[in-house]
Amino acid sequence: MKVTAIIAAAGAGSRIGAKKQFLELLGKSILSMTVSVFEECQSVDDIVVVVNKDDVEQAKNVLSGYKKLLKIIPGGAERQNSVYNGLQAATRDTDIVVIHDGARPLVTKEMISGVINEAKTSKAVITGMPVKDTIKTVSKENVVLETLDRDTIWIVQTPQAFEYDLIKEAYERANKIGYLATDDSKLVERLGISVKMVKGSYENIKITTKEDMKIAEAILKGRGS
């Protein structure tokens, strides 16, 4: 069973003031740190990296030497466009696609293998963690509308794994009607397909702000990296 990983790393990094995928954590770029985990994961056969069209050459320099790296390709205007480009770049004998944010460098091989193995039977699998805090919905006027049951609420992360034909169909149907989603599994849900949730890690943060960089470095030091 062939598994292709798609690393979505075409973001502009507007909230951090730089292209975060090329920022360094303890001397190594976030993008190379992320890709290296997939390179070392035995469950992954190919890796497709999607970056901004202006960053393709820089990404090639940063990622030189990775044996599983199939292609580095330009992304689109939205994350959804970029991931779809990645799906099209996968070889046609791909059975399972695992999609991951390039700005989540603290992912582990165990998380990746976990969603892939579950996808072999569940077809669509996402990673996440239960929320720790009380969650409320609030109006535009900042008035509390409802307190939600936190036992049923999870923070969604990546990696997410899907049968290749299923996720490709989900993307093509969404593209046809111009529907945009920030989460891959949302497109599968729209097909009426059940999505399985598996536990990731509270350490599997997405680098979005400068504060996230400090947190990530602390976690890496704690791991002995």
Describe how the helices and strands are arranged:
Elements: E1 3-9, E2 24-25, E3 28-29, H1 30-40, E4 46-51, H2 56-62, E5 69-74, H3 79-89, E6 96-101, H4 109-122, E7 124-130, E8 136-138, E9 144-147, E10 154-163, H5 164-177, H6 184-189, E11 196-199, H7 210-223
Parallel strand pairs: 1-4, 1-6, 4-5, 7-11
Antiparallel strand pairs: 2-3, 6-10, 7-10, 8-9
Helix pairs in contact: 3-5
Tell me the number of structural domains.
1
Q: Using the CA coordinates, give the radius of gyration.
A: 17 Å
Q: Number of helical runs?
A: 7
Approximate strand percentage: 25-35%
Output the CATH class name.
Alpha Beta
Helix-strand topology string: EEEHEHEHEHEEEEHHEH
Query: How do the strands line up in the largest sheet?
Result: 5-4-1-6-10-7-11
Total beta-strand segments? 11
Q: Report the biggest beta sheet as strand number plus sense, adding barrel if it closes.
A: 7 strands, mixed
Termini separation: 32 Å
* Structural class by SSE content: alpha/beta
Low-confidence stretches: none
Describe the structure.
The protein has 225 residues and is α/β, with parallel strands linked by helices. It has a single domain, classed as Spore Coat Polysaccharide Biosynthesis Protein SpsA, Chain A, CATH 3.90.550. It has seven helices and eleven strands. A seven-stranded mixed β-sheet has the order 5-4-1-6-10-7-11, sandwiched between helices. α3 packs across α5. The protein is globular and about 50 Å long. It starts with a strand and ends with a helix. The relative contact order is 0.18.
